[in-house]
Structures are given as structure tokens and as C-alpha cells.
Amino acid sequence: MTKEIQELIEEAIKLVLDAQKIVIFTGTGLSTDSGMSGTTGSSISTSKESSFPTFVGNPTTRRKSWQTWNMFRMIELAQPNPAHYAITELYTMGKLDCVITQNVDGLHQKAGVPDEKVIELHGSLRRVKCVNCDRRYPIIEVAKRLGDGEEGSICSECGGLLKAATVSFGEPPPTAEIEEAEQHARNCDLFMLLGSSLMVYPAAYMPIYAKEAGAKLIIINVGAASMDESADVLIDMDVGKVLLRIIEGVKNKLA
Ligand SMILES: [Zn+2]
Q1: pLDDT tens per residue, the chain (255 residues)?
Q2: Predicted model pTM
């Protein structure tokens, strides 16, 4: 690691030490080490193929969608990587306000961050929901039913269609999650943007809200992020390696 990177890491360590309420924002760049390629998160949920009107209106699309079920089951098998665990350490230290994520893989929770501390902007592949009555089912339950030879993807409550509880193209954005995320962004003292280039609104507003409220901003991402010029510390590198060094540094200072 170059001297320059080392200095940036030192600056980030200082910001983390000074912070009491950290909001972590994660994108697909965080999960690339977990056997989930960069395509896992949002591309499933935003492709036109699986768009909500198409899903509801077209049996062929639905059948095809359920053929990708194996991919959804992969989510059950995916394991958090060291970067997920590093974020969990912030929770253990009492510094984590919440995680806002664009990922649908549920790996923050698997790494030990409580469910109520994770705001999933694009929904979750860990759950399946009925498009009619909105009832949620654990993915493992539905996968088991399919494995037992059940043909369909039908709600046992109302007979409605089941689909992964992700936000699809053409589906209304999750207002509650967006509002909750905004509230946390406006009340944090440090906002860390990790592995996301934030091209999508309204997610892209979150660090702006944080800066407006006087929070510091750390960006760790390969390639440019849309908020680069506002960052207090900007590290253009893979999140995994850098984040571990920052958290180690924080722990050493606290010890
Ligand atoms: Zn239902």
C-alpha cells in the first residue's frame, strides 16, 4: 500500500473514532467477495425481464422467473466476507447507527447486524412475498415446497402469486425504507459509502442529506462515485482490504 493510501486510512480511522452515530451505506461492491458476482444485487431486481407488470401479466415470465429459483437459493448459501464482519464490529463497538444497503443478499444480517439495524432499499431475496395480500414467506420455506414437487408459486393464504421480495423494475419504490434511510442519514455524524457508485436516485440523495446535516463523509469504492467531491476521505480501492485496515486501526486505538 502506498504512503498516500496509508495516510487516507489514518484520516478515516480518526473520523471513525470521533463518530458516535455511523451510517454505513453499501452497494454491490461489498458482496463481490462472497461468491456473489457484482450482478447479484440490483440487476436481478431491475431487469425488465422480471419487471412487475410482466411478472404479474405473463405466465411464461413467471415460469422463467421460478426457474431462476436456484439463484435465489444461492443466496441462502452465500456467506458474509470480512468486510461484512468489519461493519458488524462497528455495531459491537456501539458506533453503528444503521446499515442502508442496495444489496438484496441479507449478508449484513448473516454477519450479525440485527435486522432492525438494516434498511434494505431494494428489498431482500431472503423473503418471498404474495403480490396480492403482501404476506411474506421465508425463502427456505418456499424453496422446500418447490423441492417437494409443488408446481406453483402460490400464496397459501389467498392463492395469490409469490415473488421474491425485491424491488422490481416498474414496481413502486419502498417509500417506508426510503424515508427511514433519509431520517438516519440526516441524524448521523459519519456517513460511510462503501462499494457503491450511487447512480440511482433516491438512494444517491442519502450522503447529500448527511453532509447537509454536518456529518463527515467517507467514500471507499473502486472507480468514481457521484459524491466524490463532497467526501472528507475518498479511497479509490476495493472496500474489503481498506475497511479491514480501518477497523483494525480503530480497535487498536480503543484498546
Ligand atoms: Zn396472499
Answers
A1: 566 999 999 999 999 999 999 999 999 898 776 655 443 333 333 344 456 666 666 666 665 555 556 656 677 778 999 999 999 999 999 999 999 999 988 999 999 999 999 999 988 877 788 889 988 888 777 777 776 766 667 888 998 888 877 777 666 667 889 999 999 999 999 999 999 887 777 888 999 999 999 999 999 998 877 777 889 999 999 898 899 999 999 999 998
A2: 0.81
Active site residues per annotation = 122
Beta-carbon neighbour count of residue 105 at 10 Å? 26
Calculate the alpha carbon distances from 27 to 109, 160, 224 in Å: 15, 31, 14
Ligand 1: centre distance to CA 138 (Å): 14
Question: Which residue type occupies 197?
Answer: S
- What spacing in Å lies between the alpha carbon of 24 and ligand 1's midpoint? 34
Q: Which domains does the chain possess?
A: 1-36+80-121+172-255 (3.40.50.1220), 41-77+123-166 (3.30.1600.10)
Write the DSSP string, 99-150. EEES--S-HHHHTT--GGGEEETTEEEEEEEETTT--EEEHHHHHHHHHTT-
CA distance 217 to 192: 6
Q: What distance in angstroms lies between residue 93's CA and the mean position of ligand 1's atoms?
A: 41
Tell whether omega for the bond before 207 is within 30 degrees of 0, i.e. cis. Answer: no
Q: Which of 129, 131, 139 is nearest to 105 (CA)?
A: 139
How far does residue 154's CA lie from ligand 1's centre (Å)? 8
